[in-house]
Write a sequence for this structure.
């Protein structure tokens, strides 16, 4: 079950990164995918990857905020 969760999280990350030029909401979805991958990594005990994915989630949230302001 844990592997399925991780596979879905990484798939969400991949697809949302690929489509993020279409909408700012894909950037937010990418942040969510990164957060889910960080959670998966924590549950699997792979803490260095957890830290990296959590940082990616923060960077993506910052990009979403910046893009939302530009589009407003």
């Amino acid at each position: 079950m844990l592997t399925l969760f991780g596979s879905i999280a990484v798939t969400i990350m991949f697809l949302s990164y690929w489509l993020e030029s279409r909408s700012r909401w894909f950037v937010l979805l990418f942040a969510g995918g990164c957060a889910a991958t960080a959670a998966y990594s924590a549950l699997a005990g792979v803490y260095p990857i957890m830290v990296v994915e959590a940082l990616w989630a923060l960077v993506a949230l910052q990009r979403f905020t910046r893009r939302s302001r530009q589009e407003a």
Notes: The CA atoms of residues 24 and 66 lie 10 Å apart.
